[in-house]
Design goal:
The protein has 300 residues and is α/β, with parallel strands linked by helices. It is built from 12 helices and 8 strands.
């Protein structure tokens, strides 16, 4: 990766890139491989590039699709509403199901890390006809997460409340030192900082543009105002994820130590998984372990 390559020219080797429109959004997507399809979704504060160590290894048996989340990286979308309208996980899930259909995939598996995991499980709940298997990394459902934050030390979860503040407060605060914010977040959440090399870290920082900051704030506003209410309605109605679910979390990430599997087993009947080495950024910190687990899970 060159030091000042345009963001649109930075990608995962061997993948073919395109722009796909869905609703009022345009997603930067990349595809490679053949076989049953799998969609990989990244988390905060990164981009699809976090899958560079995992995605190529899955292409031998799968058609692999990676993309930047709405408004982030190379994807483009309008600003969200005051409560995050346009960025609820229900809206993002519907758009990405549309994207996959346009790519020729009516049914697929989905793997989501962090915020991408929230889109992924909403996709499985709202579009069971489309999702064959679901893997979520380093999360519990949004409603449960808000409830758990009342029960434990919450300092690590400051983005949930900071970025959900009304615009333009968080946008201006973060934009004033965006590179520091990204580097601090990654350094403080990673157990193995060397797993995220200097080029990748520089890319994530440069991709944290004012437009991306706005999108991330809309995502967090939607979580606070919209997503947890949607989860609450589903939980009250007894709705469950119909497909098999794989759950992993960083074994060195203390905030996830108190039973993610137990939480997910209230949302799905077929749940497996466990901790992997490292901290929050599993696709980079535990790439080999994750790839092996996904290969077994997706092929079973």
């Amino acid at each position: 990766m060159g030091p000042r390559e345009p963001l649109s020219e930075i990608g995962i080797e061997g993948f073919e890139y395109a722009s796909v429109g869905a609703g009022r959004s345009t997603y930067r997507v990349a595809t490679a491989g053949a076989g049953p399809a799998v969609l990989l979704l990244h988390g905060f504060p990164q981009s699809h590039y976090c899958w560079r160590k995992v995605a190529p290894a899955l292409t031998g048996a799968h058609a692999v699709v990676v993309c930047d989340l709405k408004g982030c990286g190379g994807s483009r979308a309008p600003r969200g509403g005051p409560l995050g309208e346009g960025y609820s996980k229900r809206e993002l899930a519907a758009e990405l199901v549309d994207v996959m259909r346009q790519l020729g995939f009516e049914r697929f598996s989905v793997v989501g890390h962090d915020r991408g995991g929230r889109v992924a499980y909403r996709m499985a709940l709202d579009h069971p006809e489309a999702v064959r298997r679901l893997a979520v990394l380093n999360i519990v459902p949004t409603l449960d997460q808000f409830e758990r934050m009342a029960e434990q030390v919450s300092l690590d979860y400051y983005p949930w409340y900071l970025l959900a503040q009304p615009a333009p407060l968080p946008e201006r605060l973060v934009a004033a030192s965006a590179e520091y914010f990204v580097r601090h977040t990654i350094a403080s959440w990673a157990a193995d900082r060397a797993a995220i090399d200097a080029d990748a870290l520089a890319y994530y920082a440069r991709a944290f543009t004012p437009e991306a900051i706005s999108a991330w704030c809309s995502d967090y506003r939607a979580a606070f105002h919209l997503d947890r209410q949607i989860d609450a309605e589903d939980r009250a109605a007894g709705r469950k994820i119909a497909c098999p679910v794989l759950v992993h979390w960083g074994g060195d990430e203390g905030a996830m130590s108190n039973g993610p599997l137990g939480v997910w087993r209230r949302w799905a009947d077929e749940v497996e998984g466990g901790p992997v080495r490292g901290g929050h950024f599993i696709p980079e910190e535990a790439a080999g372990e994750l790839t092996a687990s996904l290969t077994r899970f997706l092929d079973s």
